[in-house]
Amino acid sequence: MIGLAWALAFPEPRWSGLAWLVPGTLLILVNGSNAWRLFGLAFLASLVFRLVSLRFLLNIPHAPGAYSGWLALSLFSALFPAIWVSMCGVFFRCGLIKVQWTWFKRFGFGLFAAALWVGIEMIQARILGGYPWNFLGVTQFENQPLIQIASITGVYGVSFLIVWLSVSLLFAALQIRKKTANLWVWLYDIIVPCLFLMYACIFGFFRIGAFEEESNRVKFAVVQPSIPQQLIWEPGSKDARLDKLLELSELALLSKPDFLVWPESSAPITQEKWPQLMQMLQSANVPLIFGVDDVEKDPDSEKYNYYNSAAFMPIGGEAPVVYRKRRLVIFGEYIPFENIFPFMKYLSPIGGSFSSGKRSVQFPLNDNLSTMAPIICFEDSFPHGVREHVLPQTSLLVNLTNDGWFGKGSAQWQHAANAVFRTVENGIPMVRSCNNGLSCWIDSFGQVRRFFGEESEDIYGAGFIIFEIPILQSINSTFYNKYGDIFGWFCLGFSFFVVVGGFVKRRLHKEDELR
Which domains does the chain have, with CATH numbers? Predict the structure, then answer.
């Protein structure tokens, strides 16, 4: 039940209030359990959460890859909350429920539990390439005042507050259960985290209400072709896919946008269709941003490297500006250990791995003073990764993605929910161009301002949408954008020293008993 409630806090159905109960409920498992049983129970709850929330992976039209990816990612990501519960239990299992802790000890444990959760999320975002999908704080993506704290702490600050309050609520419930003489003693456990939560929301209200002067509005025409993934893999589908994009683009260009945007894996531009595309762009006097597969010969090995890329095609005949994706999706864009275990390639529909890009790239905006930073697909889930793309002159993030892999499911909204935090963390808006949803634009405060299918209630269909996005006259970098994961590293360091101190204390205690 814990794992199911946890999954329901995310899209869909995004019952975000359930997230505030999950960490404290997980710690109830601590009572009366040995270390291995504790880990197993916590792992089972976490596994249920991941299996349910990642069920959209089963929609991938390649059965071996769908089931292996669903199970592998669920098993891998379920380890981290289980480790959190185990570490809390190992060092405090001497009676979380039974021993009458002082208020100070309960308060200290709540801070430790929240810092440890953040530290583990920090590791999860980086180990083996990182899988920062659906961190606990992401459940609150629609709570605008609260999530503004991410401009200082990243998404980790929201996770910290959820865990701290959840553990404090557990202690408050235990105080009520004790039936002490002072029936209001339980308030002592929740008053401090509630005050911090209130201060975070007040900060958010003031940040949202701050006046920001716009220099101009930039109009984007975003095409959503809704091409089934099976058709993308079909060898003879290139012309049909490109014809669909061109047809939708012709209609979108009637609105006279400043930029035309196609999603990731939109269509390979064949030599025969190139003149038609260039004539369309030059007639409209509009540059194109689009996803493309890029290839380059490696001068050292004489082999060819293939890249998943985003390209900016100017209208004056200049060479395109190309960004190569830096963080690749396991089994979707690269096959781990394929040289050692060749059979692994049968678990993926791609047949071979892409190479990863080496650097971020800036695309030009209408003036020479500001730029936009392209990111591709899963990259908008990495807090530290997106931060590397946002330079002092960057006014906008442009995300090209292909969630058509997952058919009609919850992946589209989950992906957008993760992207919301990248705008708050860096203080700039984002345009998202997707194959079958969620094509949208998100403002610098994390609000999804408009999305394709908003009126028809069909985010998965084909068509186009026009976004008029305000560009700020002066870009004020956020604390997070300037200094990165200071909060996250502090939480990781603090929890590490508490854990090491606990080991040392227990070892010394055992040595004293043996004497």
Answer: 2-210+485-514 (no CATH), 214-475 (3.60.110.10)
